[in-house]
Structure formats: structure tokens, C-alpha cells
Amino acid sequence: MGGTVLLIAGAPVGRGRLVEAAGVLPVLSAVAPGVLAGADPAHVVELADPLEPQAVLTRLRAAAAVPDPLTVFVAGQLQLDRRQRLPHLALARTTPASVRYTAFPWHWFREELRLRTPGSTTLVLDLHADPECWEQLRAQPLDCGSGHAVYGRIAPPPGRRTVGQPSYLKAVATLLRSGYRPPLEQLHQQALARVAEESGGKGVGVVLGTGAPAAPAGSDPHTALADAVRAGRHTDADALAARWEQAALRAHGAGSDEALHWTEVRADLAMLAGDPVRSCRTWLTVAAARLGAGQAVDAPAVEAAVDRAHHQWGRIHDAARARELGPALAELRGRVPGRRAGALDHVRRQLEQLQEA
Fold this sequence. Notes:
Elements: E1 3-10, H1 25-29, H2 33-37, E2 42-48, H3 53-65, E3 70-80, E4 87-89, H4 99-102, E5 104-105, H5 107-113, E6 121-129, H6 131-137, E7 149-155, H7 167-176, H8 184-199, E8 206-209, H9 221-230, H10 234-252, H11 257-272, H12 276-292, H13 300-313, H14 319-335, H15 343-356
Parallel strand pairs: 1-2, 1-3, 3-6, 6-7
Antiparallel strand pairs: 3-4, 4-5, 7-8
């Protein structure tokens, strides 16, 4: 079994930049892929100062779909959107007023990695927070999802007219260039010691070092699902998820987060099985249920459901099935426009072309 590595470095261009995030990529790229991944052979994907959040999402989604161990290195800066006050990874075009549309929502990391086998994913983070985000993080820690190992640090805003450096990741890369990858907890502590030494103990910030949760594999249904998908037993995987969905419905009721979680799992399983019709229909059901339960049209889970329904609809090659699902998607897109400009217009144009086909 090999490994996959995703290197992401993002920060605004111009006055809004708090950290020279991309400066760490040449140092990381000089490390042998197998050492970065902790497994050989290894596949490395690099994103330097990406412009669009959708570009990051596409790369993350592709990396998350690979069953091999995944290590995600992220350098950059965190900012809050003004409407929901949610942390985002700022990208090249991000400004304080445009965070919601030009930055990468941090909860997308959690959403895209949630189906991975516990213990198979590692996040190594070197982040600087703007003043608003830094203040919020003191009360609300950054949520990276469960089942993953998380190491790194979040630094406070640098001084005025000062641009910070991804010192933690540079220390990690320097240590790994020896060709030896120690246990991650040991590597983490060595990198922190270097940062503290270089900064006189002032530049570490909030330390992230949750480690990898234990995987009790026989009792975790997500592990069984991942095993079934890897073996190509998609029908068995859906049947297992359906049983958990029914159990959640009985225990918590329709519209509950517990029941909707398993409906979302079934939508993802349909995607992995190459069935975009079923995946699209299921995501439409999730979106409608969340809205029916009173969730806001810009709630992250609602937007994610509609975005994924839209994505899967675009993969349907059968014109008749696409025409069947298109009106429901258009109706939801009218209520949930999402973060991509022109999403509703795209659905309408595609429907017009399908009607002419």
C-alpha cells in the first residue's frame, strides 16, 4: 500500500497577507515523496496560492477518495466570513469582505474527510489567524473532524506591517529531509522545539497535537463500509448504511442529524459506486430534509448537500434521468444559491439544452 500527500499553501495577495505560506512548498517538495507520505510509493499533489476554493475542493475530494493513507499539509491564514463567522482558509483573491466567496471554508476539510477509515488520515497544519479569527479560536477550537491525526500550530496575527512565516512546517520539512520520518508525535515535538528556539519561545501559538484516535475496527461501521467499498462490494456497503439509517430513524426520528448523517453516507456510497443518479437524488433528499427541519439556506450542511447534488447531476449521462432530477435541483438552487456565482443559471441552461436534446 502506498500513500497520498496533498500540499496546500494559500494566502491573499497584497496587503491582506499575514503569512508567506507558499514559501514552505519548495522545502517540502525537496523531501522524498515516500518520506512525506510515510509510505512508498507515494503520490504528491501541490497547490500553491490557489485562486478558487472549488479548485482546492476538487483536489481534496480526489485525494480523500483514494483508500491509501493520506497526509494533508496546510500552510496559510485563517479568516472569518462576516455572515456566519466560520473560519476559512484564505486564498489568493481573498479580502475581508469576500471571505465567503473567495476563501476555502474550513468545514469542507471535515466534510470531505469524514468517510475515510479512522487512523488513515493525518493533517499537518501551520496556520496564522487574523485578529477576529484568533479571538474566536480562543473559545472555539478549530474543528478538523474526528478519526484523524492532527499536528501543527495556529499562530496569532503577526505584528503590524509584518508577514509571518510557516516556521513549523519549515521545521518539519527540514527534519524530514534527512530521509527518516520518525513517529509523528516525535516529529511534531521536534518541530515545535525548533520553532520555539528560533523565536525565543514567542512564535509557537496554539499547539495542535491530538494524535490519531484508536480505531476499535470491528465496532465502527464506517470502517466496515470503507472495507466493502475497497473490495468493490458497493451493494453490501449500501445495505449496511441503510440498516444504520433505519436504526437512527427509529432512535432519533426523521430529520435528526443522526439519521441525516447516514443518508449522506448513502449518497457518498452511490457516488463511489458510479451511480450519479442515485447520489444526486439522495443529496436532494438531504437538502430538502434539512431545510424542512428549519436549517438556514446558508447553513454549511445545507449548502454542501445542494452543491453535491449539483455536482452529481452534472455527471448524469442519461438525458431522461437528468431531465427528471433537474427541476428539483433548480428549485433548491433558487433557495440555496451557494458560494459559486451563477450556479442557478448553470442548472437552467443545462435544463434548456436537455429539453432540446
